Amino acid sequence: MATSVETAAEHERILREIESTDTNCIGPTLRSVYDGREHGLFVEKLDVRIRNHDREIEKMCNHHFQGFVDSITELLKVRGEAQKLKSQVTETNRHLQDEGKELMGSMEELQKCRVQQRNIASTIDKLTHCLPVLEMYSRLQEQMRAKRYYPALRTLEQLELTCLPRAGEYRFCSIMAENIPKLRTQIRDTAMTQLRDFLESIRKHSDKIGETAIKQAKIQRSLDSSVSSQPRALIGRRRKEAMMMMMNINGIDGTPVSEQDSGILDVEDEEEQEEEEEEDVPGAQDLVDFSPVYRCLHIYTVLGLRDVFENYYRKQRRKQARLVLQPHSNMHETLEGYTRYFNQIVGFFVVEDHILHTTQGLVNRAYVEELWELALSKLIAALRTHSSYCDNPNLVLDLKNLIVLFADTLQGYGFPVSQLFDMLLEMREQYGEILLKKWNITFRQVLDQDNFSPIPVSTELEYKNYTSQFPLQDPELDKLPFPKKLPFSEFVPKVYCQLKEFIYACLKYSEDLHLSSTEVDDMIRKSTNLLLTRTLSHCLHYAIKKKNVGLAELVQVIINTTHLEQSCHFLEEFISNITNVPPDSANATKLYGMSTFKDARHSAEAEIYTNLNAKIDQFLQLAEYDWMVALQGGGTSEASDYLMDLIAFLNSTFSVFTNLPGTPVEHATLPGKVAQTACMSACKHISTSLMQLLLDPDVRQISMGALQQLNADVKECEGFARAGPVAGFQGDTLLLAFSDLRQLLELFTQWDWSSYLADYGKPSCKYLRVNPHTALTLLEKMRETSRKNNVFAQFRKTDRDRQKLIDTIIKQLRNLIAQQQA
């Protein structure tokens, strides 16, 4: 029961909600009814509620029905009155129409006249606006046919912005408006084509432009060096160039001068003029018509595409710069290759410099400096690579002059060129190496052609000729009558002249490098030092060490190097005179020629000693001593044949030193000193070699007869020393070379062991130069001989006593040696 009451209340609530809620929102409410189980009961209640509402509506309609009937009755009455009013109005309208027909005719005619009048005025106004359009378009067509594109673009701009908007919308105006972008594109493309032709043309002719600019800079430099003021002709020509440049830029009427396709002007007439009058060299800008650039720049500026044009121009010029800076693979072979390379670079930057100064912003200083930095890096790298292949000093010198002229030309246009001069200083070392190689060949040729003999002079003219080539100052030689001989060979004046030629070659490279006199002097002196210490020194050593060089030739080399050494201070003065730097200045580099020639002289002396000793060794190899020969009783042994031949050779050899010319001259002491040293060296070498023969380990036994033969040979050598083969030795100085061997032989031949052992180590010892080791070695060899040769020595008391004596002496010598070592 409670459930039906709740259901009824819920249904009542839903009905109220349906009555009070919009019909669009009753969906959820009805769904709640269908979700429940009492929807049939709800439908019954809904029907009851509908019937109640119907009864209420019916009551309301019954209440208002009488008023509706009264309104219908009044409406019927009004309809009759309305019919009457309609017929009256129709009649009145008919009378009005009949009476206004004539007026309407007049008014229609007046209206037609007014329309015609307005149309005529409008036509006149439109024609007034259209005629300028047509006239301007006609002018535009003429300008296009005449290829006057910049005025055409101005006309086009005026036509589009001023005339066409005033003319109105007509078909021909529409056609013109449609053609305006096409005409702009045509003008732009044509201007760009001319610019491309211009760029291609200057790329092909950049070498001619550069050649002209370099030639002009060369003339300017020569004029600056010859006179301090500029000639009027040059001033007039510069004014002419300035006027032409201004006309090129602005034109007479404020527009670009040339409206024709142009690029490089015809230069053949200019070349003919140069042949006729070399001084009248056209300016580099005179060869180029820049109007395509200016025209294209103006056109793109008007079109609002200046940035596009600037980027395109710079991009194309960068590409051309890379092509210009790419050298040919065989550029290093000839100077023409370098010249063409430099001309192209100069031509490129002359054009860019002109563009920089004659246009506003097409290229700026930063862009040009960037290109120049790129060019400098690639140029220097290319020059370093290609110049390294060059081995011709004349080509390197011409290249240096070309680089200097190239640098001066571009420096005149405001480009920094210090790096180029730094590179030239680097090339200076390479140039010096090439010169050294060339002079190395020259010196060797001079040495190979020299006869290493004093120069014979027959006449005063010949004598002056040689003294003009070499600074010979010898009063004694001047007093000698003709014919006479100069102390040196042809090598000396030739080498001295070549040294001066080398200095001149170094000086040529230092010119125009903007160096101070001190720097030039320092460079020349350092290069000359390299020539002396390295090249000439090697050549002299080559000549000295060469095979088949006789002692006379080596002595002449010594004399030659002595005179060259004495001439070094003349070379110092020569360098100071050409560089205007005093030789005694604080920073002046000294020449190392004296040490070079001293080393060569010492080398020649050493070679004399070596050769002489080698010849002595050849004689000593002929020695055939019989070490087991028996002692000859009574008679004296004669010297060996090989030794007699050796002594004869030495006498003839040292006569070469004695018979050298020029004894009264100052240098005459030189051969004497060399001969003395050589003679002493030869004697010492003979003594040492004979000692080595005695002590040779292969010789195990030596008899007293062999010592007697050796003693005879040593006496022969001492006789040679006493004879004085070379003058200048005091007393028996030369005999000292044989003193070691002499004392040793006397010790054994006289068998004076008691004195040796008793006085050993004392200054008054008779055998002071005999070494115990040497004596022991030789005595052991004699003991072995005594043992093997005297098989029956044990049966003879004398031999037994001698053998015991030898053993005793050996024992004492060993004790003496042990005491020394302790």
TrEMBL record:
Cellular component, GO annotation: exocyst; plasma membrane
Keyword Transport: yes
Keyword Electron transport: no
Keywords: Exocytosis, Transport
Domain Exocyst complex subunit EXOC6/Sec15 C-terminal: 419-781
Function according to Swiss-Prot or TrEMBL: Component of the exocyst complex involved in the docking of exocytic vesicles with fusion sites on the plasma membrane.
Similarity-based family: Belongs to the SEC15 family.
Protein's name in the database: Exocyst complex component
Species this protein is from: Pagothenia borchgrevinki (Bald rockcod)
